[in-house]
Amino acid sequence: MLEVAEFTDPMCPWAWGSEPTFRRLRELTAGRSRWRRVYGILFDHDDDPPPDPAAETAWYFRFVQQVSEHTGAPCPARLERVALSSWPASLGAKAAARQGAEGAVLRRLREAMFIAGRPADTVERVLAAAEGVDGLDPDAFARDLASPEIEAAVRADWRETRRPAAEVIGLTAPGPHCGAAKPIDGGLRYALPTLLFEGPLGREIVPGWRPLQQYVDAVERVDPAR
Questions:
Q1: Which of 35, 48, 114, 141 sees the fewest Cβ atoms within 10 Å?
Q2: CA distances from 176 to 38, 40, 57, 186 (A)
Q3: pLDDT band at residue 110, thresholds of 50, 70 and 90?
Q4: What is the mean pLDDT of residues 30-40?
Q5: CB neighbours of residue 19 within 10 Å
Q6: Do the Cβ atoms of 93 and 130 come closer than 8 Å?
Q7: Could you tell me if residue 128 is left (phi over 0), alpha (psi between -120 and 50 degrees) or otherwise beta?
Q8: Which helix (H) or strand (E) element contains residue 195?
Q9: Candidate from 13-22, 41-50, 204-213 with smallest mean pLDDT
Q10: Is 6 helix (H, G, I), strand (E, B) or coil?
Q11: Residue 23's CB: how many other CB atoms inside 10 A?
Q12: Residue 80 to residues 15, 56, 74, 145, 155, Cα–Cα distance (Å)
C-alpha cells in the first residue's frame, strides 16, 4: 500500500490552492494508498504578536492575494485579521477525523479563512465552521476537540513537521514556492504543503506548489501501477 503523508495547515494559502490537485491525486490513487494529514502549525501559540496588527493584516492579505493569483484559488474580499493561531483549526480537523469527516471539516475551516476572510482561530469559530457538516455529531466533535488525545496527536504532527527530510533542506528549484524547508524556532520545518510518498520502491518527497504530473510521477517511482 502506498503511504502518503500530507504536511499541511488549515491557514496556509498554498495548501488551500493545492486542494484541487490533491483531490485529483486521491482519486488517481484510490484503492492503493493510505493518506494521513500532518498538521504543521503555521501560526503557533508562542509567535510574537505583531506590533501593528492592522499593518500586519494588510501585509498578509496582499500575500494571500498574490498566492491566489498564482494558484487560481478563491480569495476573500477582505481579511479580518491574521490568524491568532493554527491550533484550534488543526485540532478541529484532527477531531473530525474520528468521525470520518476530516476532509469536509478542513474544507469548512479553509473557507472561513479564504472565502469569508474570518480565520477559524478560536474554538468557537471552529465549532461554527463545522456546523451542519453531513454525518458529524456536533456534541462528539466538541468533546473530541477538547480532548487530550487530540491535542497529543496534533502535538506529534507539530514535532514531525519540524523534522524535515534531507531532500528538502537547502532545496533550490524554480519558484514561487519551491518547498525548501523553512527556518523556524531555531530549527527547520517542512514547507506547506509537502507530500511524502512511501512505497515498495522507496520514498519520494514533493514539496511546495507543484503541478499534478509531478505528484503522479513521484507515485509511480515508488509504487508503479500494476
A1: 48
A2: 23, 20, 21, 24
A3: very high
A4: 96
A5: 18
A6: no
A7: alpha
A8: strand 194-199
A9: 41-50
A10: strand
A11: 12
A12: 20, 11, 16, 24, 27
* Tens-digit pLDDT profile for residues 115-140: 999 999 999 999 999 999 999 999 99
Prediction pTM value: 0.96
Give the separation between CA 69 and CA 72, rounded to whole angstroms: 5
Task: Report which residue type is found at 68.
Answer: S
pLDDT over threshold 70, residue 174: yes
pLDDT at 59 over 70: yes
Q: Which residues of 71-84 are buried (b: 16+ CB within 10 A; e: fewer)?
A: bebebbeebebbbb
Instruction: Using CB atoms within 10 Å of the CB of residue 169, give its burial: 0 to 12 exposed, 13 to 18 middle, 19+ buried.
Output: exposed
Count of positions (residues) in the chain: 226
| pLDDT value of residue 175 | 82
Q: Cα angle vertex 8, ends 133, 49, to 5°? A: 95
- Return the ∠ at Cα 71 (arms to 69 and 203), rounded to 5°: 150
Measured CA to CA, the distance from residue 84 to residue 215 in angstroms comes to 32
